[in-house]
Amino acid sequence: MVTVAACGDSSAPPVSTADGDEGGSSGEESVIDSGNARGDGDCADGCAFDIMVGGDALFGTLLLPDGEGPHPAVLIHAGSGPTDRDGNTPLLRGRNDSLRLLAQGLQARGVASLRFDKRGIGESAGALTSEVGFEIGVLVEDLAAWHTALADDARISRVTLVGHSEGSLIAILSAQQRRPDGLVSLAGVGRPAGDLLREQLAAQLPAELLTDAESFIETLEAGGEIEGEVPPELQSIFRPSVHDYLRSWLAFDPAQELSKVETDALAVVQGTTDSQVAVQDAELLAAAHPDAALHVIDGMSHVLKQASASPADQMAAYTDPDLPVMPEVFDIIAPLSSGR
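The chain above was modelled as a monomer; its predicted structure follows.
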């Protein structure tokens, strides 16, 4: 039996309704009102920053640097599947804390950050009770709401959207709704999702299952319904409850969507040892926008940490929170988000 399970998030289930505590704001006092809830205090150690969207509570963590504000800030959107605000997923043993480390490293360089649990994930699990009917547009609207809340905070001077993996596409789409001061794609796919799925599954599946998967992708790309039973080995990706999400996700060409974005600063960042997204994807994204700066970081894995292509190194990057985010990432994002 073959079970499809990627090492990260690109071909993981797009949503999850399971409760979890990864990255939750344990010990942080949250206040939710009819509008937006701001973190109290200086938030130097992180404070709860929660919002209501359509009657649903979404939970995040605001981190402010030392010194008198207002501060430039990044709004970080995690990748797909049950990836939480810190970059961790229950699909893997151990934590990598990549997005938490990203926020802390930027804080040390004078940049504030807001990272959050997507609806259905971690502390925001209650905001999504069913995968059926859920589409990527909901996440785009959520990010726009987070953007508004952060931009309206008196402690913040400017907002840069930072999307990791699938979060890159969501940030790109959200930037079309509300113009950010900056936009950073971290390990973002530059091709339609169907092309990525085909590439990933071709490396994992035997011929019979690959034929089934190709048929499913083609059907969903055309906006159709998958008929018949989905094999158990493919349930993690093609289970019936996520067909609405997959159809909405497969409809977008990230590079084409990026060409529509207007912003003051735009960076595309990609590692050479990313096991899920290729440098080619970053090149496609950068080529789509005349103002995009392409940054290829040698030896950087999908989770922003140094790793060779060896399976052992890759797994360590995904599961060892003591491994740091590569400094080049901060060298790119900090000045961009500060307007320098």
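The chain has two domains: 36-192+247-338, 196-237.
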